[in-house]
Amino acid sequence: LKGNLARSSLLGTIIGIIPGEGAAVGAFFAYSEEKRRSKEPEKFGTGIPEGIVAPETANNATVGGALVPTLTLGVPGSPAAAVLLGAFLIQGLAPGPTLFDERPDIMYSLFLGLFLINILLLFIGLFAIRFAAMLIKVPMTVIVPTVLLLSFTGIYAVSNSLFNVGVLLAAGVLGYVVRKLGYSIAPLSIGFVLGPILENSLRQSITIADGSTAEFFNTPIGLGIYAALALTILWGPISTRVGGRTAGKAEDP
Fold first, then answer.
1. Is the pTM of this model over 0.70?
2. Cα gap 112→151, rounded to integer Å
3. If you compute the radius of gyration of the chain from its CA atoms, what whole number of angstroms results?
């Protein structure tokens, strides 16, 4: 689990640095990555330690990562970081590179507090785990109706719309079908989370480029992103194919 912990921590920190992503995206990415790397991916979703450590570690790691753009650029990396940014502005502090020179006492206190909080959470978790384990004894006939009731109540309370309740039902049916067909739910969930962010960023980029999409292909940064995207998509099939050939040669007498 040490490698799992290190990879998920690094991935969660990187996701946290990207503004607007948040803990949910980091958890989904870490879970998908560990499932892809696992020799027994079919066991994910059954409660194995690897499937629990990855998303929970990444979820916690995004907190520290979200502070990077918040403190250096003044761009909140998460909703919690946005609240922190607002508190800084109320106190007359402008986040940015100069803040580290002007008020190092606040910066070092913030980092020390973040470090101590993680240690404190470790002891709280060790103490509370015996009580949390009791939830396993609660039958599914109680858990499922409770979760459904809270989900329907929450979506209706936020939007006050029965249409969104119907969307929730449709999404639940879709998730059930996708899981029964053997597909991973995590990438689909990531798409739902990142979809609105991608659309807004695309519109902003096109507006900045005066309505032209050619700018996406004329800059080194854009070409580098496309190359990384192509490598990410092709890496799985290529590694599987190469691994199959290597295994076949090893089995030949």
1. no
2. 37
3. 22
